[in-house]
Amino acid sequence: MNRMLKNVAMVLPVAMLSLAGPLRADARIPVVSDELTKTECSACHMAFQPAFLPARSWKTIMATLDNHFGEDASLDEATRAAIEDYLVANAADAPGSRTSWMLRGVGEYDVILRISEMPWWVREHRGEVSQRSWNRAGSKSNCTACHRGAERGYFDDD
Amino acid sequence: MKTSRTIRQGLIAGALLVAGSLAVWAAPGDTNARQLIAQFSAQAGSTASAARGKALFTGRHTGGKPDTPSCTTCHTANLKGPGKTRAGKVIEPMAPSVNPNRFTDSAKVAKWFRRNCNSVLGRECTAGEKADILAWLSSI
After folding, report:
1. Does residue B5 belong to the interface with chain A, where contact is any CB pair within 8 Å?
2. Is residue B91 within a helix (H) or strand (E), and if so which, with residue range?
3. pLDDT at B117 over 80
4. Chain centroid to CA A145: how far?
5. Could you tell me whether strands B83-84 and B90-91 are parallel, antiparallel, or unpaired per DSSP bridges?
6. Domain segments of chain A: what residues?
7. How far apart are CA A47 and CA A10, in angstroms?
8. Which residue among A14, A129, B34, B116 is buried most deeply as judged by most CB within 10 Å?
9. Is the pLDDT of residue A115 over 90?
10. B122 contacts in A (CB within 8 Å)?
């Protein structure tokens, strides 16, 4: 009995770690690997990695480019469709996704369009960023203001 | 003295490399500001006016989207310097005098006129307006 308890005591912490989600210390978000997406979606902001949002969010964004967060970001249909296919195939809820943990707290029918409104993002940044830093960054969509490795998928360097 | 074959081949390769590098460095697009101004002016049936272009570009408009009342909202009033998007990304200077790559890609010009005129004015720019804007930017 004692030996069994000792074994469990050794194994339990490690087993619990596996439930905690990715080890954030070396978590890396898969980069934007499609050249067209990278080119067209980085003119005004960093090309956000598709792993950050579920497919339904990407589809809505790509269907409303003529009013993209207050601006016209429209594309010719062939380009638009190709980019949408890439984003959906690599979304947080796509088969094989390594970022499905980002969907925790997101209702099945919620369509969040801003990465900065995803529950994990709000939690991650709450209490972490001074007002001065927010002012310097200017916008919550300006990841690289604080995360120098953001485009390469590293967000723990802040 | 006969040049050896190796040296000759080396010289040819070197010359091709230099020529190739120059071609890339010159970044040939499919057009330039002067050509575009001529095309838009012909379409409009009027002569381009840099003064009109300046008024249009630097003016404040109400027909477009609320966050972008003017072209200067993102490009700033100093077209020889960088602009900044609302998301904080740097926009290279618009004036061809400091940024020679500007207006050398007709598809890119068409795309950004389409988007930005809709954002700022709430409509497409006319051919005359495009000519005027390009004439003004080329004069800076």
Report:
1. no
2. strand B90-91
3. yes
4. 16
5. antiparallel
6. 32-152
7. 43
8. B116
9. yes
10. none
